[in-house]
Every structure is written in C-alpha cells, then in structure tokens.
Write a structure and sequence with these properties.
By secondary structure, this protein is α+β, with helices and mostly antiparallel strands. The chain folds into 4 domains: 9-281, 7-stranded beta/alpha barrel (Alpha-Beta Barrel), CATH 3.20.110.20; 283-324, no CATH class; 465-514, no CATH class; 526-731, Beta-galactosidase, Chain A, domain 5. The protein is 30% helix and 27% strand. The chain has 21 helices and 25 strands. Strands 15, 16, 17, 18, 19, 20, 21, 22, 23, 24 and 25 form an 11-stranded antiparallel sheet that branches. Strands 1, 2, 3, 4, 5, 6, 7, 8 and 9 form a 9-stranded mixed sheet that branches. The protein is elongated, with a radius of gyration of 28 Å.
C-alpha cells in the first residue's frame, strides 16, 4: 500500500530586535527582560523551531556590555543551525537618506560584527522601517547582500496579490539580482494577536503538494512581551507558558507538513517566482504618517473603512506619502538630516577614520528621530538630543584634525536646509551658531562644542493626524458614564491584547486640552511686539495676535570678522500696530550678535527705532527656546534667578519673575550652564513646551524644551530709539552630588 503524499509549506520567521541610539539604559534592560531574553528560552526548549534573528549594532553593543552571556546563547543556537543571523545597517539608518559610502560601511560593519560574534556571514539584511527606493539593489549587492524582506504593500503596489507572494522575487538596479521577500500581512496581524490555531489553520490552507511555498513574516521582536499587555499573554505568569510556548509547540507538532525554514536557506534552495521592480514605499502606516496631518487622518480613515468592508481589491492600490516627505513635514528633521550630511563631509575630508569621528557620524544616522509616526520618533527628546550629541562629537573629532588645537572661527553663507535661501553658519572651536535671516533673523542651532550639546533642538508644536483621533476618543470618553467606562475597560482586558496600531490608549485624561499649535518655529531670538495685558498663559498657548510683522519675516544680514571675534548684524524695517490707531508705525529692529574668539559666549544687542512721527507704546519681547533634557521635573535641569526663590526651579516649570537682571539655565549632567546678564531689567516668562505624541503605551504629554521670553515695555516718541544688551556666558558646571537620574536626565 502506497503512502499518500501530504501537502507541505514553509514558514519563514524573522524577528527584528532594535533599540535606538541614545535610548535610556533602563529601557534597554526592561525590553531585554520582557522580550529579548524570553524568546531564547523557548527556542532552546524547541530545537525543531528554526528562524532568523536580526539585532542592530546599537543593541549588540549594549548586550556585549550588559549581558555577554546572552550573545553566547545566541551563538549556540546559530551553531546548531536553528537560528540564522541577519545583517543590516549597523546603527539602523534609513538607507536612502544617507550617503552611499555610509550605506556600504554600515552594512559591512554589522556583517563583520556578526561574523566575529556568531561565526557566520549573513547573506540577508533587514531594511530599516522597510523604506525602499529603486536604487538600493545596486548598493546592497555591492555590500554582498543576497536577500531582504519588505512588506506585502511594496509588492501589491505593482499589482501582485496575496497568492503571488509565497516565495521571493528578483529585482535589480545595474546589478546582479537581489532576492526580495514579502511579509505576510495576515501573519503580521495574527502573530501574536490571535489564537495559535488560527495561524496554524491558515498555514495549513496554503500547503501544496510540491511544498515549494514559503509564507514569510519579518516583524518587531518587542511585540512579544514589551508592548502593552503582551508580556503575560506571550510568556504566561511563570514566563514559560503563554502564546509563544503554545505556538512553538504547535510548530513542532505539525512539523511533518509545516517546515520552519530560515529565509536565507530557502533563498539558496528555491528559485525566484519572477522579476519585480518595486516603487518607493514603506509599510502602509509609514506612508500614512508621511502625509500632511489632515491628509494623514483622512487616509487612515479611508484605510479603516476599506479594511472593514473587505475591499482588498481597492486596498492594494492605496498609497500614502513618500518617506522623504518627513524632511518637509518637520523642519527639525530636515535640520538634523542636513547637519548629518554636513558632518559627513567634514569627517570624510578628515579621513573617515574612528579618530576623525566616523563612528559618531554613523550613530547619528540612526533612523529613530528622522521621522514620526505612532511611536515617539522625532518627538523623543532624549534620543533627538543624543543624535546631535554624536553629530557634534564627530564634528569635534574631524575639526581637531583639520583645524588643530588653536582657537579658530569661520562663517559661511550657504543653503544649509536646501530651500534655495542661504543660511548663515558661524562655526568655531567653542560653539556653532546657525542663523536663518529669512525667518526672523533667528538662531535655529546653537551647538556647545565642549558639552557636545545642541541647546536649541526643540520641537515646534504642530497638528498631527492622530490628534483628531484623540479628540474624538476624548469626546466619546466624556460622553460615556463612569459605569459604561468601567464595563468597557473590563471587556478590553479580556482575550487578546490590543495592537497599538488599532487600540487607543491615553496616559492621562483630557489630553485633547493640550493640543496647542505654534504659528512659527521654536527658534531663538524671535522678536515679538505684544499687546499690553497679555498673560503668560495666553502666550504659552499661542492665544494672542502679534502687533508687529517681524516674526518669521526676512532680515538683512551682515558679518564683520575681527581679531577678537565675529559680529553679525540682523536688521528689518517693519511695522508695529498701536491700540486704537488706524495705521501702524514704521519701526526698525536691529540685533547685533557678537561671538568672541575662543569663548563660550554670545552677546546680543537690540536696537529698536521708532521711525514714525507719533508715540510708540508697546511691549517688546525676545523669545528663546532651549532644550536641556528637562522633562519629568528632572532635578539636574534648572532655572536659577539670583535674588529670587523660585516656587519651582525645574527646567520644565512655568512662571513669571519681574525685574530680572541675571538668571541661569543649565543641566548638571550635561555639565552645561548658561548665565544671562541684561543691561535693562526685564520680566522673565518661562514655560515648558509640551507636545501630545504617541508611544507603544499610548498618547502622552512630552516635554520638548522650554521657552523663555524677556519682556520690556517701551515708550518711544517719533525718531527715538531704545536698546538692550543680553550677554550669554556658557560655562562648565559639575554636580556636587549624584542626583537621581529621571528618564529625561541623560542621553543614554
């Protein structure tokens, strides 16, 4: 009697493990305990389960320092051919956004690290955020990468369907073929969110007589225990049961027809399904987030409706925005990116060695704050600060080679942000001052070279697509009774955990009351003429009307370089409205900035002239926005006003102090203090700039920096002028005791 052949299918599992450069060490440790470590134990118990693992270089570096035994355990799994190691960019950059030389170098560095630690050379790689551009195959093949995995949406955009994706395709760009898999959307939304038997039965339905099919999934390992409500669900109360144990057991029990096969192994055994040329894309949520806020909300709603109505034939043609549009949506992202490109030139001109800062350059290319979606992104203030920290360290190293040890200073007019308008960049061994004459003659980057800190990497408050979702959620919450909320909360805790992509969580109630939007970028040296009677509260919430036309308007710029330093003059002839008057008065504002050679200092001198014939009675304010890692009432980030006992001196505090001549801001962990001295007493306003952004745990308020404004009432007759001098002295400050570090107290 002959045995009837059984239908079989391959399952290709790839788990992506990553933590951002600059994330808090306690976050690394927490995710290690919740997700990275737990996955090893069931793998060791279930030798029949084979899969691919990708660890980014930033995570491998931390593991080597904190848990070297973990890497040894992974190496054992690799040695017995249960685990296949996957390469990528070492610090997880968005590959199309960095120079080609860095693309190749980062991929090769991780390949060499894997070969050294695990004794194998990876043939495949993880594409950060699956951001794909058609020019990538040539570079990947040059880096000796043979295969990668993207989302199914990449393939569906050119007309393929689910049944076309049970294998890999070949693509190229002036190169030999690169093998490209598609992640199964069905698996991405069932693993681990649905019962195990649903996944097994779905795979059984795809098994064929010839057994050549593979169903692939590449996904974040953090979803297995680190995402909200997933730890007990994935690992059980004892850490040895739960969804993963049940899943691995089912895979082994069904191994006669269900083969867990690493993707690289499958690619060496089976031919491609055909050729493909993939357009620019990422996963569907990323293309949603790359759209302008209103369009993003509309696109998301349309996706939900089409999915609800099961219009798969329409869904495959839904394409959102292009990843590079994040450089348009967020000027802060663009400035960070263009700073990276500038430092790349410096580092490579100095030799592109570790001594020239190349490792810090690569760390600064980590993707996490070059975009924003549902989770953190550029709104992660500590990670954003860490990226600048590495950029400035790389710049210091390169300049030490090219400039030497003696004090130096230079300036350049250049189109820094690539918008065809020149910015003015002043660089020295002590500090960098980046000035935008076209947008109010403002200071948009102030790098302190000694502490390697950008004082001004502050986020502007702006509308996000998910803000409308939050508003609707909060309106519904307020509408329901307390009893209904309790019932709903209890129901939500039953069964499978909710995916962060589909579940709305908030860390505090009434978050929609904090959705303020700024009308201008949060630079420094912003020149305001304000109405009398304006309160700090209304100023902080952007509920007022400018009386002048100086904010974000063009200023003329001139530079004089002398033996003692650089003098920059920024001037604009504008107008200021007067209460009750029909016509505004002509007013000229001139601000002279002096940056002395060899000092951590900036002197700002304001000259305001009433060029009309009648009296000008107004309230003038100069606004400065600083980032000093001050969130969460961090004890190391502070305001100090000599002669005044502040009710709250934390850097994220809010308050008003009158008749101020001197004050300090700083952070003892950064070892950076800035002392302000004023020639005329001012009223000092201060408040925390907070955004409402998302994280895996839900929507929350996040400190992005602090605004301080110096205000003076001015009365000028026609032809009269007024002036004030502000001296900013930077200095090193050292804590006298080891303060407790809050989550926002350090770069990581």
């Amino acid at each position: 009697m002959t045995t009837r052949p059984i239908n079989t299918v391959h399952l290709g599992l790839l788990l992506h493990n990553h933590q951002p450069v600059g994330n808090f060490p306690w976050v690394f440790q927490q995710v290690y305990e919740q997700a990275y470590l737990p996955i090893l134990e069931p793998l060791e118990r279930h030798p029949g389960v084979r899969l691919s693992l990708h660890y980014t270089g930033s995570l491998l570096d931390w593991l080597q320092e904190a848990h070297p035994e973990f890497l040894e355990r992974v190496a054992t799994l690799v040695k017995r051919k249960q685990v296949e190691m996957v390469g990528g960019g070492y610090y997880e950059p968005i590959l199309p956004s960095i120079p080609d030389a860095d693309k190749l170098a980062q991929i090769r560095r991780l390949t060499e690290r894997i070969q050294r630690d695990f004794g194998v050379r990876p043939t495949g790689m993880w594409i950060a955020e699956r951001v794909w551009e058609p020019s990538l195959p040539h570079l990947l093949r040059e880096a000796e990468i043979e295969w990668t995995i993207l989302d199914d949406v990449h393939f569906k955009n050119v007309g393929l369907e689910d049944n076309d994706l049970y294998g890999y395709y070949a693509t190229e760009d002036q190169s030999t073929a690169l093998k490209v898999y598609a992640t199964s959307k069905l698996l991405r939304y069932t693993i681990p969110w649905r019962p195990v038997n649903e996944t097994i039965e779905m795979l059984r339905s795809l098994a064929t007589r010839d057994g050549s099919r593979i169903v692939a999934i590449g996904d974040d390992a953090e979803k297995f225990g680190s995402w909200p409500e997933t730890y007990a669900y994935c690992w059980g109360s004892d850490g040895h049961s739960g969804w993963v144990e049940e899943f691995f057991t089912a895979l082994e029990e069904n191994s006669t027809w269900l083969h867990t096969t690493p993707l690289g192994e499958y690619a060496c055994t089976y031919p491609a399904l055909g050729r493909i040329y993939i357009p620019t894309s990422s996963y569907i949520e990323m293309t949603e987030w790359a759209l302008p806020a209103r369009k993003s909300f509309t696109f998301g709603k349309l996706l939900q409706q089409l999915e609800h109505d099961k219009h798969d034939e329409l869904l495959q043609f839904m394409r959102g925005g292009f990843w590079r549009n994040f450089l348009v949506r967020y000027p802060e992202v663009n400035n960070q990116h263009k700073k990276m490109l500038r430092i790349h030139e410096h580092v490579y001109a100095a030799g592109a060695t570790e001594q020239a800062g190349v490792l810090d350059l690569w760390k600064a290319q980590a993707n996490d704050t070059y975009w924003h979606g549902l989770f953190g992104g550029v709104y992660m203030a500590h990670v954003r600060s860490a990226i600048y920290h590495h950029l400035i360290k790389a710049e210091n190293a390169a300049d030490a080679i090219s400039q030497g040890a003696a004090p130096w200073q230079r300036y350049e007019y250049t189109d820094f942000d690539r918008d065809t308008h020149d910015e003015l960049l002043v660089e020295s061994d002590q500090q960098n001052l980046y000035i935008d004459p076209q947008r109010g003659g403002t200071l948009f980057e102030w790098d302190m070279r000694r502490s390697a800190h950008n004082m001004l990497c502050v986020m502007t408050r702006r509308e996000e697509g998910y803000h409308q979702t939050l508003r609707e959620h909060e309106r519904e919450r307020r509408r329901r009774s307390a009893v209904q909320r309790t019932v709903a909360a209890a129901a939500q805790q039953e069964g499978e955990p909710g995916s962060p992509h589909t579940t709305i969580r908030t860390k505090e109630v009434d978050l929609d009351q904090y959705l303020f939007q700024d009308r201008y970028r949060r630079h420094s040296l912003v020149d305001h003429f304000l109405p009398f009677g304006l309160t700090l509260r209304d100023f902080a919430q952007a509920r007022y009307e400018e009386q002048g036309n100086f904010v974000e308007q063009p200023y003329q710029a001139q530079v004089e370089q002398g033996a003692s330093g650089l003098t920059i003059t920024l001037a604009r002839s504008g107008q200021v409205r007067r209460p009750g008057a029909m016509t505004p008065l002509p007013v000229r504002v001139s601000k002279e900035l002096f940056a002395p050679l060899g000092e951590e200092q900036l002197v700002a001198r304001y000259f305001i002239e009433n060029r009309g014939h009648t009296r000008l009675h107004t309230l003038f304010a100069t606004e400065w926005n600083f980032h000093l890692l001050g969130g969460g009432s961090n004890d190391q980030a502070y305001y100090r006003v000599p002669g005044y006992e502040l009710e709250d001196s934390h850097f994220d505090s809010t308050g008003e102090v009158q008749n101020v001549y001197t004050f300090h801001i700083g952070n003892t962990w950064l070892r950076q203090d800035m002392a302000f001295s004023l020639s005329k007493a001012a009223t000092l306003w201060r408040f925390s700039i907070e955004t409402v952004a998302g994280s895996e745990a839900g929507f929350e308020r996040t400190h992005q920096g602090s605004c301080l404004a110096l205000l003076w009432p001015i009365v000028l007759e026609g032809g009269q002028g007024w002036n004030v001098e502000i001296v900013c002295n930077g200095q090193e400050v050292i804590a006298h005791h080891e303060a407790r570090l809050s989550p926002s107290a350090r770069l990581g």
